[in-house]
Amino acid sequence: MAGQNHLLIDGYNVIHQWPDFAVRFKRDPAGTCDQLVEAVRVIHDIDNYRVTTVFDGRGAMVDVQYPGEIRTFAVLYSPSDLSADGLIEQIVKNAKIPGTCTVVSRDNLIAESIRASGGFAIRPEELADWIKRCEGRSRQTITQKQKAVRLAWKESNPWDALDGLK
Question: Which Pfam families does the annotation name (predicted)?
Fold first, then answer.
């Protein structure tokens, strides 16, 4: 979708800023990265943002993965000669509308670079708050749908379908 808001997350930067994740990362780096990706999915699903989590990579080229085969929810690994920060900066600079890009990083240099390109920068703790708000709205939506289903079932008799059978 053209002009869709795009959230770009400096993955390792966020992991090391969130205390629980930083501890887990020492035991299970890959699992912690997966947990971060799953944690931010709610922003994609509830706030309709394109979400890209970027990690420093080791290969010769950018590695792109789409968890769940959802093209608006991606994980990128930068090539070995480019940091995740550098890849994020390139994405924002090359965006058709940089003002639709929000970058999450504690790094002040990348934040300034993003703002200079026309994008927005937020800190990891702001991302954590955003996730909590989205999770709350998600629970609220589910609760409302559950109430509607219970009401619909109360008003109908499942055995009515058997009346026509003899």
Answer: NYN_YacP
